[in-house]
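Quick one, probably user error.
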């Protein structure tokens, strides 16, 4: 090998090679034009994979989902760390030729300075270049091997860079969803409070119904109307499945409910106006507001006979036949009462309805005729069940001021 030629020519050539190498290393996608990783939608909106090796025993569904999400994030970040570590090793390999060429250039510069000193000493003996030539030869051999390794690394670098970009986008997408997953787990607990809130609103509905009924019956409780068309109280509402239609949540008592609730109170007022010691009727016992303080009595004979007649006339048929028989019996009782042939009074209608339902023994609403019957019952649980049915079937709901006979026939 002509070491003198190498000393004068290689530094410039090597600088070009190094520049080429650096250009290859630096080449890559423009950050401003970074493309979305394939399959990123899964990380933006998808659910945590089921193959996460995480213990969720004993956790409610959303907490278990959160635990799987956290394991998903950890796995994705671990994969990103592994890729970045491999990339660093690739770059180290690509950088080897540049380091070797820098060493050769330093040796050549050292040779040049050493030659000057040798000439100044009289040019006697072996030249400094000859002393260092063996080391340069070994470095040149290493350069050839390092260049081969660098070319292999460069070929794989593009794939590695692409995978790193994809995994980084995935990790960032998952991290952006951390609060959403945690919030869903919190909402799972809040749903139980929402269900309690709804139950308390239903209880308040019953309480308000009884107050409005008593006001309608005796008219001395100070409410602005003795029999309003209806009362609606809006309550703060929240986006919870346990609250149903969250935009319209509150307590609503319609005119018909007030009419029904007023019956027992009106009857109690009549009873006690005659005799303060008189025991309350069974109709009063069916009122949820006072059923814990008043003792129930058996149905009056005329109502008991009416219940038996309705059930017999229905002849074991469905609720359509039972509703028809009940509507016809109430119409007959009203007519007989007008003619003085029956002890039936209008305030006993809801008591009769409740007694018929209890006699049949079916309180879970399964059809519209049944819901219509139960909506006129003196028993609060019957009316609540009917209201739930009509919430799902609003077109079947009777008008607020509908008479029971018209509603059932």
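Nope, works fine. Designed sequence:
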């Amino acid at each position: 090998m002509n070491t003198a030629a190498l000393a004068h020519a290689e530094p410039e050539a090597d600088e070009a090679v190094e520049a080429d190498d650096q250009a290859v290393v630096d080449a890559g996608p423009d950050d401003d034009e970074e493309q979305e990783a394939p399959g990123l939608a899964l990380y933006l909106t998808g659910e945590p994979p089921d193959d996460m090796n995480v213990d969720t025993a004993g956790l409610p569904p959303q907490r278990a989902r959160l635990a799987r999400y956290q394991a998903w994030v950890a796995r994705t970040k671990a994969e990103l760390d592994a890729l970045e570590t491999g990339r660093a090793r690739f770059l180290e390999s690509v950088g080897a030729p540049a380091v070797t060429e820098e060493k050769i250039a330093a040796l050549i510069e050292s040779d040049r300075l050493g030659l000057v000193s040798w000439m100044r000493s009289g040019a006697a003996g072996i030249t400094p270049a000859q002393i260092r030539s063996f080391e340069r030869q070994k470095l040149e051999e290493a350069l050839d091997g390092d260049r081969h390794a660098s070319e292999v690394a460069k070929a794989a670098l593009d794939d590695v860079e692409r995978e790193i970009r994809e995994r980084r986008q995935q990790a960032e997408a998952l991290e952006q969803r951390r609060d959403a997953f945690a919030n869903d787990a919190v909402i799972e607990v809040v749903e139980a409070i929402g269900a309690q809130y709804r139950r308390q609103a239903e209880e308040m509905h019953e309480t308000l119904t009884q107050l409005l009924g008593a006001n309608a019956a005796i008219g001395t409780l100070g409410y602005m109307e003795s029999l309003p068309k209806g009362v609606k109280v809006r309550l703060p509402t929240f986006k919870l499945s346990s609250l149903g239609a969250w935009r319209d949540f509150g307590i609503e008592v319609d005119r018909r409910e007030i009419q029904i609730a007023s019956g027992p109170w009106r009857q109690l007022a009549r009873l006690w106006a005659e005799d303060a010691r008189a025991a309350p009727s069974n109709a009063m016992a069916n009122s949820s507001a006072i059923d814990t303080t008043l003792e129930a009595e058996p149905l009056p004979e005329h109502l008991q006979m009416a219940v038996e007649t309705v059930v017999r006339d229905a002849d074991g048929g469905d609720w359509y036949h039972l509703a028809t028989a009940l509507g016809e019996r109430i119409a007959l009782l009203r007519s007989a009462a007008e003619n003085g042939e029956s002890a039936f009074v209008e305030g006993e209608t809801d008591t009769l309805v409740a007694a018929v339902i209890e006699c049949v023994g079916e309180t879970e609403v399964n059809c519209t005729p049944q819901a219509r019957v139960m909506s006129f019952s003196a028993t609060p649980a019957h009316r609540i069940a009917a209201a739930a049915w009509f919430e799902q079937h609003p077109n079947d709901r009777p008008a607020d001021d509908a008479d029971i006979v018209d509603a059932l026939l």
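Confidence is low (pLDDT under 50) at residues 1-32, 285-296.
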